[in-house]
């Protein structure tokens, strides 16, 4: 899955446009239970994916423990997105709630907007989402940010910092080092 992150960071436009942002996995995850409606279908290198191959969360202990990638998404969201989209993805007077948006948005659509930007103009307002395709602090962690916001949108994760998380997978560190070069 981390190789997908590298490919996404380097070839984002092509992958998103073609819908090819799917990773091969090494098998199904063992009897996983999440609190929200999305059930993780597969697990590779600590990254959970749904039946469509999109990144998803794994929340256990009554919502008190998350997988590493969800925790990483929380940290990266708070480093890069909170300024406009508010605490916990709840939105602000400046930008919409991502918790609401992700209730109907798949990963490819989310990635396309984050990497390429978006502009909505009406008679009463002009909303602009800048493109973050050149920002490695976003592109290298885009699936993580999506995973965190998806957990929030589906009600599997409450507000504030998750109290516990799974250990950091070795594959995460390796891919992170390669992506940030």
- Could you spell the SSE succession in H and E letters? HEEEEEHHHHEEHHEH
Helix coverage percent of residues?
A: 40-55%
Total helical elements: 8
Name the beta content range: 5-15%
Number of domains: 1
Main β-sheet, in a few words? 3 strands, antiparallel
Radius of gyration: 16 Å
Mean pLDDT: 82
Uncertain regions spanning at least 5 consecutive residues: 1-36
Distance between the termini: 18 Å
Structural class estimated from helices and strands: alpha+beta
- Quick one: overall form? globular
Please count the beta strands (DSSP E, at least 2 residues each): 8
How do the strands of the widest beta sheet line up side by side?
Answer: 1-2-3
Q: Could you give the topology of this structure?
A:
Layout: H1 2-18, E1 42-44, E2 47-49, E3 55-56, E4 59-60, E5 65-66, H2 68-80, H3 82-85, H4 98-101, H5 107-116, E6 118-121, E7 126-129, H6 136-139, H7 142-153, E8 164-165, H8 170-179
Parallel strand pairs: 5-8
Antiparallel strand pairs: 1-2, 2-3, 4-5, 6-7
Helix pairs in contact: 1-5, 1-8, 2-7
